[in-house]
Please model this.
Amino acid sequence: MDGSLAQHGNWVTLRFGYAKRTGDFTGDGSLGYGVAYQRMLAKHYAFAAGVGHDVVGHFGDQLDIMVPFTAELQRHFKWNTDLHPYLGIGGGYYYRKMYRTGTDYDTRRSGGVQVSMGVTSELDDRHLVGFEARVAFVRGNKDQFNPTFGPGSDTETIWTAKLIWGLFY
Model:
């Protein structure tokens, strides 16, 4: 049996971990979480779509938040072990908001591309756990300046590393 990698199988996953924006004036990274749906298109290929909430930078109580709405195609590898690695590429829409910085603004029209890699392992015939690392290159706005997080840039890089718990059916 192919278990979680069976063709036409569905996954619903919860994700929790670390998120960080790179660059000058980014502050410390913080927590992120999300939910995703995945459909196995074929034995080793899947389509995944998800939404998250990532605190990608903070200075004290001043927050830089990214909310990604993403979709990707994934290539899964079934090794002769309990671990099943995968690679993904996709893109999405990224809503951004800064809080408690004096000149809060949001960017509603940011698109970007992402690359992910992860590993999953089945706990039983319906549940899995795993880990995923993702890097997203998001279109920025270099004309905007924030007194806490500094000037914008043409492209911003967002890193996440999250634990995964999922239900497959």
About this structure: The beta strands are 10-21, 30-40, 45-59, 62-76, 84-99, 106-122, 127-139, 145-146, 150-151, 155-168. The domain at 3-168 is CATH 2.40.160.20 (Porin). The chain has one domain: 3-168. The mean pLDDT is 88.
